[in-house]
């Protein structure tokens, strides 16, 4: 109902003046309304796509209703004048669904490097840190199993879980039942970016076991903080492509034993060294907000000039 109301409320834009109309693809229904608005206002319509799900994934997610959701997403893909994809892998999936005629430009998510550089590690080093909304596909429950497995082997690791979500209560109960509650700190109270970066820098290893990431914003921020990063090779986890580029990154298989072995190895290698942005690779600077803003402006200006072709996928 919220998605439907949001879509209908988008008709208010008919009273506004604008040169370019851009929307996020979620929750899809507003894309249909905004296509009408853009047509009536005779303005270019751009939609940013962060994740492109397949029909099989929708069916796994929603059961028999999955084919309806996939049809809605596929129809929404047809409506923009051009699409901005948050990653090259998302662009490839969009092209696979739409064909070569689609106008798709890749503009990754940007990060605030100045704020990251000005953040200092918080007091109290943790072995592991997790950042994200606490929902099922983030697989934080698997990490708790990993911690319990390592404790059983006599390897005492600590973990800080930053974020909130519907799974927090169940995860806290899981930590208690596994006997690792004393080693796991839940931090749902972090609201300032600088504090977040300080907590990331105070960890030895940043862990992301998410089964699905259209880009991997938290992973990129951890890389910029100079922390060792671990993620998995899950097919829908596009954050692995960032970690593969990183000199202090490791991509392992998503199984419990594989993750446990990787965590044990990385924590041992990190020693007493927490994160330090000076250890980040030089290519991270390409994702600074200023660089991303230039790319986005180029997309808008190029398409907005009627005498020039829209940019192709890059």
What does this structure look like?
- With 314 residues, the chain is α/β, with parallel strands linked by helices.
- The protein folds into two domains: 2-110 and 288-304, Glycogen Phosphorylase B (Rossmann fold); 113-284, Rossmann fold (3-Layer(aba) Sandwich), CATH 3.40.50.2000.
- It has helices at residues 2-9, 29-41, 55-62, 66-77, 88-98, 113-118, 140-152, 168-178, 193-201, 217-224, 240-245, 256-270, 289-304; strands at 21-24, 45-49, 82-85, 104-106, 126-131, 159-162, 184-187, 203-208, 212-213, 228-232, 236-237, 249-252.
- The strands form three sheets. It has a six-stranded parallel sheet, with helices on both faces. The protein has a four-stranded parallel sheet with strand order 1-2-3-4, with helices on one face. It has a two-stranded parallel ribbon with strand order 9-11.
- α1 runs parallel beside α2.
- The protein is globular and about 65 Å long.
- It starts with a helix and ends in a 10-residue tail after the last helix.
- The model is unreliable at 305-314 (pLDDT under 50).
């Amino acid at each position: 109902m919220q998605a439907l109301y949001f879509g209908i409320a988008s008709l208010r834009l008919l009273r506004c003046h604008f040169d370019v109309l851009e929307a996020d693809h979620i929750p899809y229904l507003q894309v249909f309304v905004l296509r009408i608005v853009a047509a009536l206002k005779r303005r270019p319509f751009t939609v940013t796509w962060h994740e492109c799900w397949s029909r099989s994934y929708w069916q796994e997610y929603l059961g028999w209703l999955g084919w309806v959701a996939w049809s809605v997403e596929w129809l929404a893909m047809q409506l923009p004048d051009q699409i901005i994809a948050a990653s090259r892998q998302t662009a490839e999936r969009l092209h696979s669904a739409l064909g070569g005629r689609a106008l798709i430009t890749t503009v990754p998510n940007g990060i605030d490097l100045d704020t990251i550089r000005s953040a200092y590690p918080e007091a109290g080093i943790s072995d592991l840190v997790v950042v994200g909304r606490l929902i099922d596909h983030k697989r934080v429950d698997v990490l708790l199993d990993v911690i319990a497995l390592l404790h059983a082997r006599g390897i005492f690791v600590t973990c800080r879980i930053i974020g909130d979500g519907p799974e927090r209560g169940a995860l806290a109960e899981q930590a208690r039942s596994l006997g690792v509650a004393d080693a796991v700190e839940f931090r749902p109270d972090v609201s300032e970016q600088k504090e977040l970066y300080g907590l990331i820098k105070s960890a030895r290893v940043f862990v992301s076991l998410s089964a699905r990431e259209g880009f991997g914003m938290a992973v990129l921020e951890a890389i910029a903080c100079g922390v060792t990063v671990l993620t998995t090779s899950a097919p829908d986890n596009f954050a692995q492509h960032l970690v593969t580029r990183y000199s202090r990154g490791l991509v392992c298989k998503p199984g419990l034993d594989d993750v446990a072995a990787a965590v044990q190895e990385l924590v041992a290698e990190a020693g007493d060294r927490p994160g330090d942005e000076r250890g980040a690779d030089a290519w991270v600077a390409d994702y600074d907000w200023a660089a991303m803003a230039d790319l986005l402006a180029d997309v808008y200006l190029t398409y907005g000039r009627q005498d020039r072709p829209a940019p192709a996928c890059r």
